[in-house]
Sequence to fold (471 residues):
Amino acid sequence: MSDTSTPVIASAAVEGSFDAEGNYTPRQITFDDLGMSFADAIDGTLVTVEDGQLVNGIVVKIDRDEVLLDIGYKSEGVILARELSIRNDVNPADIVKLGEQIEALVLQKEDKEGRLLLSKKRAQYERAWGTIERVKEEDGVVEGPVIEVVKGGLIVDIGLRGFLPASLVELRRVRDLAPYVGKIVQAKIIELDKNRNNVVLSRRAYLEETQKESRDSFLTNLKPGEIREGVVSSVVSFGAFVDLGGMDGLIHVSELSWKHVDHPGTVVAVGDPVTVQVLDVDFDRERISLSLKATQQDPWQEFAGSHEVGQLVYGRVTKLVQFGGFVQVGDGIEGLVHISEMSTHHVDSPEQVVTPGEELWVKIIDLDLARRRISLSIKQAAEGGELAQEYREHFEVDEHGNWTAGADDSERESAWAEYFQEGGEAPAGEARAGEAPAGEAPAGESAVVEASAAEAEAEAEAPVVQDVPSA
Fold:
């Protein structure tokens, strides 16, 4: 008997058998535990997807420009970086984490590269739209962080990109929107269009609703004629808004100054403290009208109180028109010299006598405070008269205010120099085109123009120069 072990041959029932001719017969399968073909069994372990379908999966890879998501399909789904979030230019690693389960929407079952394209952002849109539509129907409030400043307003993350116009961010218009980025804001939905993927929000509507009681109380306690302190909150083309400590009021451009104002920005700036008078309170529209100039001295009242008809004043020609010229005789005060009051001679055009920017003496011949009009005369100023009070200390005058000094040029020039040095209308010693040298007094004699008969006939064509009465 040999010690060598004989190999054990498995029974035919386990491994099959060979016949006498050496042909192999496999064992018979007695139990079908699949119930289907092997191919069908494999396909049964994979999910089926269609374009537009919402799926869930696990993040298995994060790259700089894409994320791979295992949704149980034959290949991982690809989410491009731009499809991860409603925010622009995001880092995928800041949005998702490895192993995190997220929801995505199937954009394309198979692109030209054979990839399954997914979108986390679109899935978020689909879920958010249902919520947003319900909030709109119920006139509710949405809340979310401000994620971006765009042209004309802000973008708020409310599950989708909600647009908040700059004019609706606060109760008053806000110029600098940058500080709002990152802040959580509440807003009402005022426009909704799913087809255009458009949602317009209003934070102002939310604030008006929540602050209505305090606003009503503020308006009730505000009376026309009151003087209030405030801070300029916004400057626009038609005026300036002032924060009164509870609500904003509007100073119309016409109420900013007694002078003409080309743009409100030349008078006030955002942040300026101002004292204003309440002109009107509109309870129905919740609007407050204010005036800045009402709290300031009216230059017309001041001028009328210190000047009389018949007095001589010094001014600057500001504008020429067909019927005459305007002369500024005070701060914000302009009077009209009619063409008939420009010279003792006939004048066809104001340009024959004066030019814009020229400074000269004029006489007040009419002062209408109610209509805020002053009529002036150059030719009557040449005849002399009473000096206005502000000039008398600089010239020798009689008890009626008429200049009485002699004809000594050095004496008159000295008087003018003193006047200019103390803050008069022009630099000391400056001579201007079309006027007498500084130092001539409005003593009263107009220049004598000697002309021949031929010169008289050509007078209408030649410029007539009117000597300026000066001191």
User: Anything to note?
Assistant: DSSP finds eleven helices and 23 strands in the chain. The first helix runs from residue 12 to 15. The mean pLDDT is 79. The chain has four domains: 54-123, 139-209, 224-295, 307-457.
